[in-house]
Amino acid sequence: MSERWSLIFDCDGTLVDSEPLLARELAVTFTSLGLPFEPQDYMLDYRGVAFPFILADLETRHGRKVDDMERRKELEQQMRASLEERMKQELEPIDGVAEALEALSAHPRCVASNGPLRKIKLSMSLSGLAAQFGDHLYSAYEVGIWKPDPGLYLYAAKALDTPPERCIVIDDAAVGLKSGIDAGMQVIHLNRFSERERTPEEAHEIRAMAQLPSMVEKIIAERSAASA
Questions:
Q1: CA 166 to CA 4: how far, in whole Å?
Q2: Which residues of 118-152 are buried (b: 16+ CB within 10 A; e: fewer)?
Q3: Contact at 8 Å (CB) between 83 and 119?
Q4: Between the CA atoms of 22, 177, 197 and 140, what dihedral angle is there, to the nearest 10 degrees?
Q5: 4, 40, 110, 214 from 26: Cα distances, Å
Q6: Do residues 174 and 203 make contact, with C-beta atoms less than 8 angstroms apart?
Q7: Among residues 157, 125, 208, 173, which one has the least CA distance to residue 5?
Q8: What does the DSSP assignment read for 175-224?
Q9: Which Gene3D superfamilies does this entry report, sorted A to Z (predicted)?
Q10: How far is the C-alpha of 190 from the C-alpha of 11, rounded, in Å?
């Protein structure tokens, strides 16, 4: 009998094209906190990074600590609410993702994201992908571990009852790629910005979701042959 392989998907930028929407809302929020920020700052420097870590880095860069915790909390809540409304109007799945998931339907799969669980659930619902993952949605906010720490992906592997070495991570952002590599998993980089981003040597590159099924099967075949 063939070995069981499981697929662990990032959400934003991998399954749904939510990153440009989030970038615009973050720009409003951080600027309101007195921390200059443009949408392209997120796209170029912070894709996949959780809100608290972006805020901490901006505070360090600008030498300005946001001490008003109530104001900070209020603005983050406003950002989340505005983002949800924007998602309801504009969110689209990544091109080819539904077909790729269908082609890989024999493999157990889950979503593991640095975003809040509510946002993951909304993304799956709005994109029509909810049935592909069911309740197998894991948020760093629930687990208490954020990428690039490998802990979130290791948690997801355990939930899928699959050893890390037989898990394949599909992610588009540097923090997620590092998380999967450090977890000892096979990693596929959905490199949608190949003109400016490089795929780590330890990862496998695809540039469109249409390439995912063949890459998954190639990895499984190569790993099976190596262990034979």
A1: 7
A2: ebbbbbbebbebeebbeebbbbbbebebbbbbbbb
A3: yes
A4: 10
A5: 40, 10, 27, 36
A6: no
A7: 157
A8: HHHHHHHHTT-EEEEE-TTTTT----TTSEEESSGGGHHHHHHHHHHHHH
A9: HAD superfamily/HAD-like, Putative phosphatase, domain 2
A10: 12
Amino acid identity at 84: E
Task: Provide the token pair at 166.
Answer: 């037989």
The tokens describing 165, both together, are 């070495």
pTM for the structure as a whole: 0.93
Structure tokens at 217: 């099967």
pLDDT, tens digit, 9 for 90 and up, residues 121-131: 999 999 999 99
pLDDT band at 199 (very low <50, low <70, confident <90, very high): very high
- Enter the DSSP assignment of 114: S
**Token pair listed for 161:** 């009852």
Amino acid at 7: L
Q: Please, are residues 66 and 33 in contact by the beta-carbon 8 Å criterion?
A: yes
Determine the residue type at 171. Answer: D
Catalytic residues: 10
